[in-house]
Amino acid sequence: MALFGRPKYTIVRLKKKEMPNGLWTKCEACSETLYNKTIEENLKVCPKCGYHFSLGAYERINMLIDKDMFQEYDKDMLSADPLDFKGPKTYKDKLAADQASTGLKDAVISGEGFLDNKKIIIAVTDSRFIMGSMGSVVGEKITHAIESATEKKIPVVIVSGSGGGARMYEGMLSLMQMSKTCAALSYHRKAKLPYISVLTNPTMGGVMASFAGVGDIIMAEPKALIGFAGPRVIEQTIRQKLPSGFQRSEFLLEHGLIDMIVVRKNMKEEISKLLDYLG
Questions:
Q1: In whole angstroms, what is the distance from residue 258 CA to residue 253 CA?
Q2: What is the pTM of this model?
Q3: Is 91 helix (H, G, I), strand (E, B) or coil?
Q4: Are residues 123 and 48 in the same domain?
Q5: Is the pLDDT of residue 5 over 70?
């Protein structure tokens, strides 16, 4: 018989402290893991490699327009379903889903405000809403913005981030918006008023082939994908390998399609300078 009993141990299981979700983001270009607060403070630009993450329409407006100086146009305008589009997911379903996920009514925000105390009218497309594609509402809101700028004799700035081009769910009604927006810009130019087009990643299809491509000054963010058809479609069509960086901002600046590349933190300052020059 043992003189001393075995000592008794109490096993304490410590709960593993879980890391809250949504604190970190992996850079799509350099794979660096970034603290979200750091990205936000840097205007959603990777501090390591300079990769420009997408910005929502309201984020872009807050970045460019002086604080509390934005008056939104056509806020409650909603898309209809003129073709009664069918499919695995109907057009109405897609609209409802993106309205819920983004808090937007459609893929563009437009209105008037002040940029460095200079009055402008601005429109910004948002790639999160059906890829920023242009339907009747997008075309109407942009056209109204341009016509208002012409009437008030002030500059217009349009920031494009539209990977979807014209919206197939509306058929010909969507394609009509290309000529409609360009016609409004033609009258704006005849009035000798400036139009600055800002291209972000991505700006493609019918958007690039219409209002985005006809600015008096066309500027773009670094490495933005810009064009009509995507590079994979082009390669499959011509059966040739495309040059490195084809359809990126740097390639298009070198070949004369755009006028300048501006990093996001300098965008407001550069637009302000251009408004002074063009004014």
A1: 5
A2: 0.89
A3: helix
A4: no
A5: no
